[in-house]
Amino acid sequence: MVKNDINVIIEKEDLAEKIVKLVIYNPQIALNAKAGQFVIIRVDPKGERIPLTIADSDKKAGSITLISMTIGKTTTLVEKMREGESITDVLGPLGKCSEIERFGHVVCIGGGLGIAPVFPILKEIKNAGNTVTTIIGARNEKLLILEEEMKACSDNFFICTDDGSKGFKGFVSMKLKELITASLNGTGNFPRPDRVIAIGPTLMMKSVCDVTRQYDIKTIVSLNSIMIDGTGMCGTCRVEVGTETKFACVDGPEFDGHLVNFNLLLARQNYFCEEEQLSMEEYKKENHTGACKLDL
Amino acid sequence: MKKEKTPMPEQQPQERIKNFNEVALGYNEEQAIEEAERCLQCKVPKCTEGCPVEIDIKSFIKLITRKDFSSALEKIREKNSLPAICGRVCPQEDQCEKKCILGIRNEPVAIGRLERFVADWNDKNKNDPGSSKKSDDSLENAFAELERIHDGNGNKNLNINVQKLQKKARIAVVGSGPAGLTCAGELAKMGYGITIFEALHESGGVLVYGIPEFRLPKSILKKEVEFVKNLGVEIITNALVGNTYTLEDLFGAGYKAIFIATGAGLPYFMGIPGENLNGVYSANEFLTRNNLMKAYLFPEYDTPIKKVKNFAVVGAGNVAMDSARTAKRLGAEKVYLIYRRTEKEMPARIEEIEHAKQEGIIFHILSNPVEIIGEDSFVEKVRCIRMELGEPDSSGRRSPVPVPGSEFEIEAQAIIMAIGQGPNPLLLKKIPGLGLTRKGNIIADEKTCRTNIKGIFAAGDIVSGAATVILAMGGGKKAAISINDYINSGIW
Question: Which residue of B lies nearest to A50 if distances are taken between CA atoms?
Fold first, then answer.
């Protein structure tokens, strides 16, 4: 039995290689969380603050679900946490919630870790009476997450992998283009999308927007900029949307993808690349892994 | 009697730019007594008039001359819950010391330094009236009772018990900066059950994210926050009111009034080309990385900062000086400060300007950035234009006018925008009908701190716009008195 202290990890599950799901006890966040929002966490007294999307929330159980992909030191620390341990700090729910309306036919696209944040939006979109087509993609089959959950809420469901290990071989943007083309030709029973929601790596969202722009289909993306406070105080997360500078943490994270300056976003995301690598190397030096010992 | 203030011992500039330790080291007992003896003990002291929280200055100074330092602290604490902080960061030259009679012909009494001395001496000698709680017997009993109930981890249970125990109402305070801490402390002393909701993971607001270690050591802040907690105030961190807790949640949970003290946390940018390049920070970001997240200790701490060759800071307020001096301590070769008027118009405290100069900050006055230039999305230089002073503007300062054709470039790999902060609209937008100024500050009555919505009070920078720690504290204090009136009368 796990004791329910605030921010304690009630449940932990490995979803795929380097992708973990954490169910965290925090009734206050669960009470007010809506689809599309995120939290900022800190996992160590000397740790940094990183944003993670709320992949699910359960008001009754007082819990929220976070999904983290291991890429640097902080996410390595997240991966190593065990059930029963508490996360030092969890702040949320942050950001604006998704715009949920009856749009008609909505295509929900999730790439890699981006599948996680699409899931709660997908559910809401479906509940609002939309026809939902879902496309999820990853580099390979092993990295696909939430496949069954997503499929269950979708009218049409497609999988893409870069290496073709499952489903369509290629990027989600290519699959989308194929589907839109088919809808315009009247081949198959696939109506023209009224809206696309795409969440995933920045390059993926950019590619999706490049496709939908040609057909003038409104496309919503969720931006994963670097953040510190997450409350609009520091401006680290600023992005250009149309002619305006916006803060992803409070004005977003969702924006009209056709207006987002993705090149700027990519550049800003990579600003601390060297430092992030250094941080990881230092961490490895301090924590000789089991593999190291085996090498001896 | 000496004409000048007893000098403040300081770390030498060449030394201090290599560390983040406090610059001003503080008086010892002899120096404090020597300075205290300069006080004329005026029959009608002007200094107290200059103090936003009306500290009985002459009395605490008298107690210093008698070497009764613990009573001196009690005297200050009657009016001010955060003396170690105010002694350090208050602009005394514009307040108490400005009114000091000695100041007419000579230098005024160094009231700020004495206030700091008293706080530090008592801390060193563990003789703080706050921690011993000897101020009020009935309150002391209530605290003892509370401590019995409080098992050390159950905040929620505590709330319920507070309600049963306390005769007075529960009040929610939003923000743990100077205004929030002061209001909470004052209301707790009156017997209210107070919860402070703080969005960040640490308490203190601008004192923890904004003001650098070398000007206000975080250990000092921690102790002052502890003092407020010892008065019975509960602080919940990671709690963003408006998001984590809605106002309905708070009123629904039984809070009878809400005090909004969310400060001036929204960074302003200039709106010039290149401002989103890598290496352009708001002062808030730069200072938060270093102060709250301790990026200057990276990689021991995980939050990074780029230690580039040259920094340029735009602006000339205290925040700009803090940013420039922090940049210097990161090991920068050159740190430039770009300001569109002259040194005379700089809003920063004279002491901060002097400290910055001593530390080798290069001032580019009568200059204004027009474009930030970079390559491969990284900042390389900032293009500025020379300015000259024209007619006085609405602030009474002569307004700067660009000199055509006078552009020049400054090479810097990081630019810090310290041109001011506005009110963070996050919570305010979620209170339907809340009266706001054109700039987005809350409209609150100057005397009562009441907003146009029943039960909601506001003070500090969120009302006044970015000002000083002590003014925010003065606002917090007024709000506490007004909240007490409202709870007692029930009349809005």
Answer: B303
